Amino acid sequence: MIDSAQDRDPLELLADEFVARLRDGERPSISQYVRQYPQYADEIEELFPTVAAMEQYRCQEESQRRTGLRAGSSGIPEFLGDFHVIREIGRGGMGIVYEAEQKSLARRVALKVLPKHALLQEKDRLRFEREAQMAAALHHTHIVPVFGTGECDGLHYYAMPLIRGVGLDEVIRGLRDGGGPPALPSDHWSRVARIGIQAAEALDYAHEQGTLHRDVKPSNLLLDEKDNLSVADFGLARAVESTEVSRSGEVVGTLRYMAPEQLEGRAEARSDLYSLGLSLYELATLQPAFGESAARLRSVSGRDPVQPTRPRKLNPAIPRDLETILLKCLEPEPQRRYRDAGALGDDLQRFLEGRPIRARHVTWMERFARWCRRNPALAGVSALAASLLIAVAVTAGVAHLRTRKAYAETTAALHRAEASSLVALEALDDIYLQLSPDRIWIQSGVDARGEVCVCLGLRSGGGGIDSQGRTAMQLHASEETAAVLKGLLVCYDRLAEQASDDTRVQLQAAIACRRIGDIRQLLGQLAEAKGEYDRALEKLAAIEPTVDERVQVALERARTYNGLGNTESARLDATAAYEAHRQALKVLQEAGPLSDLSADCRYEAARTLYFLANKATFDLGNRRGENEPDDTQGPKRPYNSRQCREAATTLLEDLSARNPNLPDYRFLLALCLRPVGTTVISEADAADRRRAISILEELKDLHPDVLEYRYELAATYAWIHVGFFPWQQPVAEPYARSSLEMALVELRWLTEHNPSIPQYAVSTALILAKLGQLHDRAGQSRRALSFFRQALQSQEDAVRRFPELPLHHQVLQEYMRLKLAQTLLHAGEAADNPDADAEPRRLLEACLANLDQLAKRPELVDRRLAEATVSMAGQTLQGMPASE
């Protein structure tokens, strides 16, 4: 029997029992489980709080769903006792709030009503009553008071003042929609401090009265038109002397604003300060500290709580003292926060008055020391790896022999860390992920022939170019980094030898090889990259995975084949590249129906189909008009370019719909929607291109710092055939000029902010040349000359600044020189200038002389543009009158 009770992990059975008790309405104590099962104490303390939080989050979602179902049915009478119900003004987890008129006193109030359906849960009714009792006992300027309570027709309610204002969440949303940080008013930081002071005063008073709020969040901080704040919704409040309704250990609150200790049921006064800190952080930066609830859960559920990004990294205009105050509120350990809300308010007042604050800025050394205390084992191994990096970097310039000695000593130290296999494996994995992140994306562009070019990269850092001029954003990689990774691979191999029957170790060793191949490919070391990919495939072939591991091994094989395919493409071996991508797709198909596989597998399948579509386009498209090869072109291609793109698009449409918050799915979808080749596109292709532009524009707006989104948007704007190359037919598109001008704006921004990336420089030159071609066809010679001169100058600057550019960029430079000469001749004929052929003749002669030198170089692989340029320049020169 599969998964029988006797075969299950005892800890898993305990977790099932814990969840069942939670769902039965009990509040089982985690400490009791620890005392009862001391052999699992560490695992229980780490697992059970997360399980409790997930169950509480599920209950919240279910409660909100039930509330949503009730929203459509009007179960509230027009009159509740002395109150005339006017309209609904809000709802939350504990009830619905209405605007009402109290007839006896002729005043407008806010009436909070517990729906009848919620009465089925006795704990909800008791909590509702407790909220009214606690709120009624608190009398403070910045706390919403309670006028009275009552019950009518089974509906429990209580009345509060009607505050004419909005929640802080709506204020944040309005500031964000109004233009974000650049549009913030000059007194915004003072406003943040004033709001924080009022909230701190309210919480300090509540804490002194023995009441914790436990659900401080922007929507519970209400502001009137004069920015006076009121803290509302004490529905999750708990007295210091807790009752049976809210006993110690209960995990309550809103996950996005919950303190780490609150997740474990240990709420205290400083937990409210943490939640207030998150709310003020969001007001200052206009974005959540941790994002969605799932990300928040991950950040607080581990032994190494994730801290939010420093506010000044998101907006340098934020004052340093305000940042220090916010970060002190957000310390993961309660004892490192402010001692109470009064101290927080005092520091905010000091900031407001320009006096020195009491909070101290945490240095990077202190943060590092705390991380080391939380992760002693990983810190030790990471220190060894860091020592290796430093040793290699320092000794590389001194002498090769000393470098080898330092490297050998540090590698030996790493080998000694293998004593505990699992600990060493986890440490090595972490180091590898830091040095070689495994996040994959697609980069594409337009080559010198005006055709699509595609390559593979890793999401990080600078830029690089392969032998075909296909550029990818890449890691700040170096030979020393590759050496470190190679040294760590020795550890993987040793672990694999010691644990030959451990599939996990074998798989990680193969993944390590593949990652080294990625680094080698980014460094342009294509032969070494191919060797690492081949070695990774050998390791993967030797693994005998279990049923559960089979799909993971297949996914890694597909990734390795795709890496190998891109390396072969960079080596100009189109047949080998196509075969590698075909093998990647075959591996994924053998793993099972794609609809049954994980999202990672389906995404890898979409990438593979995208590669296959473009390989078919390179090899066969634009040469016969069809994607069918003849016997002279090598093996038959079973995949049609358009069919591959359609299949990839179908997969990505589904992935994007299921995961709307993952931008890479939509990014690759946009690339798949773009037309291919240089032939005239259909109406359907044009519609797909417009949709691709819409997706990329949205991604650029949402993620303005992601360079590939902005670059691919520019490339899609420029996806217009204007007849610039001799084999292209111009396409009459009414918005061609405006599209190219928008592409130019994006590329100039990229070039200005990233001058070290040659891809942006050469792409800018090509767009300028296309604009020159458009104006030349329209008879606007003066404008055409201006654009051609700018294009030639930009291309010459790029070739001079980036000598590693492939030779076809020099050929493209000479073709631009030819186009400038031809346009000058046309302009001279129109002006009837007898001396107008002097500059064109000089340009044409220089063009032919330069191409003659380039033709002698064997590394010039694609000679089509060079031959066409020589022919056109020669004919143009012969047609000119002889010089005197």
Folded structure, characterized:
- The protein has 884 residues and is α+β, with helices and mostly antiparallel strands.
- 58% of the residues lie in helices and 8% in strands.
- It contains 32 helices and 15 strands.
- The strands form five sheets. The protein has a six-stranded antiparallel beta sheet, covered by helices on one side. It has a three-stranded antiparallel beta sheet with strand order 7-9-10.
- A hairpin with a 4-residue loop joins β3 and β4.
- α13 packs across α14, α18 runs antiparallel to α19 and α30 packs antiparallel against α31.
- The longest helix has 31 residues.
- It is globular, with a radius of gyration of 33 Å.
- The N terminus is likely disordered.
Primary descriptors:
3-stranded antiparallel beta sheet; 6-stranded antiparallel beta sheet; disordered N terminus; 15 strands; 884 residues; alpha+beta
The overall average pLDDT, rounded, is 75
- What structural category arises from helix and sheet content? alpha+beta
* Largest sheet: spatial strand order: 1-2-3-4-6-5
Characterize the biggest β-sheet: 6 strands, antiparallel
Low-confidence stretches: 1-7, 67-74, 239-249, 413-425, 432-478, 617-636
Give the helix level as a range of percent. 55-70%
Give the termini separation.
99 Å
The proportion of strand residues reads: 5-15%
Number of helices: 32
Shape: globular
- C-alpha Rg (nearest Å): 33 Å
Compute the number of strand runs: 15
Quick rundown:
With 884 residues, this protein is α+β, with helices and mostly antiparallel strands.
